[in-house]
Design goal:
- The structure is a single chain.
- By secondary structure, the chain is an alpha/beta fold.
- It is 36% helix and 18% strand.
- The chain is built from 15 helices and 16 strands.
- Strands 3-4-5-6-7 form a five-stranded parallel β-sheet, with helices on one face. The protein has a five-stranded parallel β-sheet with strand order 11-10-14-15-16, covered by helices on one side.
- Helix 10 links the parallel strand 10 and strand 11.
- Helix 1 crosses helix 4 and helix 2 packs antiparallel against helix 3.
- It starts with a helix and ends with a helix.
Length: 392
């Protein structure tokens, strides 16, 4: 299994050497860690990963090779079934008619009040019910059940995408800007947003002027000029996590192309809607958040602003204080989006969801209105229209 781990890391383009692999094996042989998956993960990452940009690739390979293992017991690897798997009751299947009969709680404020009341009342675990906090039922509170408008508590990931708030600390991955594009179309579309200027120090050979000067003066007359640069500055906001997980590939391709095309580009991550804080590193987003006001004050109004997100969320997340799915926001997301459009003249929103589905998600219509109807699908045609809008 360890040799398979090494070979799959190499196949995933993580530059692991045989010397590093042998150092890892030596550490295991000398017992520098306890025989747990967590300890082995950190030891192997420290030994095999030399650049943080490869951590995401390492995590994917590690999760694939050692999925389901609880202990690393010498040469014999024991694959115990996680207790969490046993605690979850089987998925409860409801017909569309049964789902349609389940009433929502009656609004965001009432949902939060009901949750507080359940917490005060409940003294034990519940399964399959329709009221208390539990699993597998139709209650608005809990995990692995169904309710059209509820609070998700203690579930590893979303299933129906209907929760209006999530009581779990969720971890997201940074987008990999080294992804090889399957097509050059994205780069070609982004190149429409260019404004070439020659500024700065003269450090590039001006060949025509050098030839002309040499011919006129009779000796070698070297002429230099400033390098020709794209003056366009871009501020990129990337939605990450949740429903965006299904769009990771196309977003990584866009991110990779944008990093190559726009030399003066800054990027920040957010989740679902823009609020009072953004972050640069998803692995440290809980500890190293940046005030959104500071970001908006840092970059001048001539920056081109691009949001990338599916705009798929509960409308509460946009219109209500405290509506964020992950934290209690003092101001609605709509207020922050309005501030961005007031500061920056050129703002677009790129949506990876197919445009034919937009009318079925109310939050998409709200976001589209907030950005002045400048939402475009993340397709070749949509990119071309978005770049044309930003270049006006």
């Amino acid at each position: 299994m360890f040799m398979r781990f090494f070979t799959e890391l190499r196949e995933a383009k993580v530059p692991v050497t045989l010397k590093e692999y042998l150092a890892l094996m030596e550490g295991l042989d000398k017992g520098v860690i306890d025989r747990t998956v967590d300890d082995f993960y950190f030891l192997s990452r420290a030994a095999l990963v030399k650049d943080e940009k490869n951590i995401d690739k390492f995590d994917r390979v590690f999760g694939h090779v050692f999925k389901g293992l609880e202990k690393l017991d010498g040469e014999n690897l024991a694959a115990d079934i996680p207790a969490e798997w046993l605690r979850k009751i089987s998925e409860k299947f409801l017909t569309e008619e049964e789902k349609a009969q389940i009433e929502a709680m009656g609004g965001f404020d009432k949902l939060m009040e009901a949750l507080a009341e359940r917490i005060r009342e409940q003294k034990e675990r519940h399964e399959g019910g329709n009221k208390m906090i539990g699993t597998g039922g139709t209650s608005p509170f809990g995990a692995n059940g169904y309710n059209p408008e509820g609070v998700r508590i203690g579930q590893d990931k979303g299933r129906h995408g209907r929760a209006v708030k999530v009581w779990d600390k969720r971890e997201y991955k940074n987008l990999d800007d080294q992804v090889e594009l399957g097509t050059r179309n994205i780069k070609v579309a982004l190149r429409r947003l260019r404004k070439w200027v020659r500024e700065g120090s003269a450090d590039e050979l001006d060949l025509p002027a050098t030839i002309k000067g040499t011919a006129e003066k009779g000796y070698l007359d070297i002429n230099l000029r400033p390098e020709r640069r794209n003056k366009i500055s871009v501020l990129l906001f990337l939605d990450v996590g949740g429903s965006m997980d299904s769009h990771i590939k196309v977003c990584e391709e866009l991110f990779s192309a944008a990093r190559a095309e726009f030399k003066n580009m800054e990027f920040y991550y957010f989740h679902n809607c823009l609020y009072e804080a953004v972050w640069k590193d998803n692995r440290r987003r809980h500890a190293e958040k940046m005030n959104t006001w500071d970001v908006l004050h840092k970059f001048p109004h001539d920056y081109k602003v691009i949001f990338v997100g599916d705009a798929t969320m509960s409308p509460y997340e946009i219109t209500y204080p405290g509506g964020s799915v992950e934290h209690w926001n003092e101001e609605p997301g709509a207020v922050w989006l309005d501030r961005v459009t007031q500061i920056y003249e050129h703002v677009v929103w790129l949506n990876p969801t197919a445009e034919r589905h937009w009318d079925y998600t109310p939050s998409i219509g709200v976001i589209k209105q907030l950005v002045g109807d400048r939402m475009f699908p993340l397709t070749l045609e949509g990119l071309e229209k978005a770049m044309k809008e930003l270049a006006r």
